Amino acid sequence: MFRKLLPSIGKYKIYAILTPIMMMGEVAMEIFIPSIMATIIDDGIKGGKGVGYIAKMGLIMAVMSAVSLIFGTLGAYFGSKASMGFAKNLRGRLFTKIQDFSFANVDKFSTASLVTRLTNDITNTQMAFMMLIRMAFRAPVMLVGAVIMAVRVKPDLSTIFLISVPFLALALVLIMTKAHPRFRSMLDKYDRMNADVQENLIGIRAVKAFVREDYEKEEFRKSAEGVRKAQVFAEKLIILNGPIMQLTMYGTILAILWFGGNMVIDRTFEIGNLSAFITYATQILSSLMMVSMLLMMFVISRASIGRIVEVLDEEIDIKDDEAEDFEVIDGTVEFKDVTFGYNKTAEEPVLKNVNLKINSGETIGIIGGTGSAKTTLVSMISRLYDVDGGEVLVGGRNVKDYKLEKLRDKVAVVLQKNVLFSGTIRDNLKWGDAEATDEEIVEACKAAQAHDFIMSFPDQYETDLGQGGVNVSGGQKQRLCIARALLKKPKIVILDDSTSAVDTATDAAIRKAFREKLDDTTTIIIAQRITSVMDSDRIVVLEDGKIDGVGTHDELMKNNEIYREVYLSQQKGSEL
Questions:
Q1: 2, 137, 520, 547: least surrounded by Cβ within 10 Å?
Q2: Alpha helix (H) ranges present in 239-270?
Q3: Are 277 and 259 in contact (CB under 8 A)?
C-alpha cells in the first residue's frame, strides 16, 4: 500500500537517500563511543596509563561525538526536506486526482471526507514517512551493532536479551493488531465532524436567520465528543507501549546490574566493560523503543494511508482517453433515448427514455416540478454525468467523442448555486476567459446587467468579493456568474435557474440581451417562473424524468395541462 505513494518523493529522492546514510553514520559513532569509555576506565584510570592516555582517548571520544552530532543534524535536516517535499507532492497528486473526479466520484467520498484526506491524513502519512527514512534505518543498525558489541564484551551476560526482546516483540504485535481498526473508526468520526463544520459554515446565514446557534453548538459538541471518545478508545492501546517499554528497559538494566555486579565482585568482569555493556543494553532497548514508536506510527498512519490510496485508486467514471480532438462546430444538442440514474441499482431511473433535439442558436426553456430532473438532463450536455442508456449529441457528435476540455470549453453553465471565489470581480470574470480584454469584460457585464452595480462600487472591477462572494448580494452574484459564462464565448449557454434572485425587469433585460447578442448561441434556460421562459423558441415540460410536452408558450397553453396549471397558478399569485 505504501509503495503506491512512493512516486510522490519525486525530486526529493536525494534527500530521502541521504537521510538514512546520515542516520547510520550517527549510529556508527554512538556504537563505538562506549568501548572507548570502557578503555578509559579500565586502562586509563584503573590500569594506570596516566592523564596523557586519558586525554588522548577523551579527545577521540569528543571528536566521535561531534561527528555523530553532525550526522544527526544533517539526518534531521534531510529527513525534514524529504518528508515535507513528499507531503507536498502527495497532496498535489491527490488534489489533481480529485479535480478529475466526476460528480459521481465526489458524491461517493463526500466533500468533508476529501478535505480530511487532503489535510489530516496526509499529515499523518508525512510523519510516518519521516520516521521511516530516519528511524527505520537508525533503529535496526543500532540494534544489530549494539548486540554485536554487547556479545563481544560479555557473551554469557547477553542471554538476558533472549528474555526481554521476545517479551517486548509480543506486546507490540498484540497492540498493533488491535489498534488499527480503532484508528480507522476515529478517522471516520473526523469526517463526520468536518462535514458538520462545513455544513454549518456554508449555511451560517440560515443558522442565524432561524436562531439555531444553540442547536448547531450542541450538534458540534456531539460530533467533537464522538471524535474525542474515538481518540481515547484508540489511544488506550497505544499508550500501553510506553509503560511496557520502560518496564522492559529498567527490568533488563536491573538484571544486568545484578548479574554484572556480581561478576565484577568475582573479578571475572571489568568495571569499564560493565559500564559499556550497560550502555549497549540501553542502546539495544532504545532501538527497540524506536522500532515500537515506528510501528505505532504506522498503525496510526496505516488508516490514513489506506484512505489516501482509496482516492488515488478510485476509478474515474468519466474519461476521454479514447476521444479524438474534435472541435464543437455548433450548438446543436440532441438527446436520443437517454436514461440515467444516480443509483445504478434503483428500480426507477431519474431520466427515462428522453428524446429531444435542440437546433443551434435556438433558445429553449425547461420547466418542471422539484425532482423532475431538469438539472440532471442538462448536466449530460457537458458530461458532468454520463448516460446509462442512449446517447447525447453535441454538434452532431456523441459527447463521448470529444475531449472533455474541448467539450466543456464550448458549454457555459451558470449553476443554480452561484459560486464565486476569493479575489476581485475582474479575477472572477476572467475564469470565463483569462485573456479577455477590458472591453470584452464590460460588454459581458452589460449583457448580464451587472455593469451598473459594479461601477457603483468605489473600486469598481477591482472590488474584492471576499470568500465565496460575501460582499455582494444573491442577485449580484447571479449576474456576475452569467457575465463570467458569457466571456467563454460558448456554443451553448445553460442557465440553471440563474435569475431566480433578480427582479422580473432585470430578468427580462438579461433575456433581451441574450436574444440580441447571442443569436448564434444555443441558450437553455431552466426556470421556475414561466415568465423567464415564455418567450423562448420552444419550452420543454419535464415531469418525473420524462418529457411531458414540447412547444411554444401558446401551444403549451392549449395542449399541455401541467404547463397551463403552473402558468395560471403563477399568474393568480402575481395578482394577489
A1: 520
A2: 241-265
A3: no
Q: What angle do CA 177, 183, 188 make, to 5 degrees?
A: 140
pLDDT tens digit sequence for 309-341: 888 888 887 877 777 788 888 888 899 988 888
> Does the pTM of the predicted model rise above 0.70?
no
Length of the chain: 576
Residue 502, SS3?
Answer: coil
**Number of Cβ atoms within 10 Å of the Cβ of 127:** 16
Q: How far apart are CA 5 and CA 307, in angstroms?
A: 12
Cα–Cα distance, 236 to 230 (Å, whole number): 10
549 in helix, strand or coil?
A: strand
Q: Give the residue-averaged pLDDT of 476-499.
A: 81
Strand-pair partners of 220:
none
What pLDDT, in 10s, does the model give residues 11-41? Answer: 898 998 999 889 888 888 888 888 888 777 7
DSSP 412: E
Q: What is the DSSP letter of 204?
A: H
Query: Do residues 29 and 68 touch, judged by C-beta distance below 8 A?
Result: yes
pLDDT tens for each residue of 151-206: 888 887 878 877 777 877 777 777 767 776 777 777 778 777 877 777 776 677 67
Measured distance CA(253)–CA(448) in Å, rounded = 81
| Residue 256 Cα distances to 153, 165, 248, 476, angstroms | 13, 14, 12, 79
Q: Beta strand 492-496 with 411-414: parallel, antiparallel or unpaired?
A: parallel
Residue 566's alpha-carbon distances to 46, 292, 528, in angstroms, are 107, 70, 9
Which residues are CB-contacts of 541 (< 8 A; sequence separation ≥ 6)? 367, 368, 547, 548, 549, 550, 556, 560, 562, 563
Query: What grid cell was written down for 483?
Result: 457575465
Rounded CA-CA distance 77/19 in Å is 8
Residue pair 55/76 in contact (Cβ under 8 Å)? The answer is no
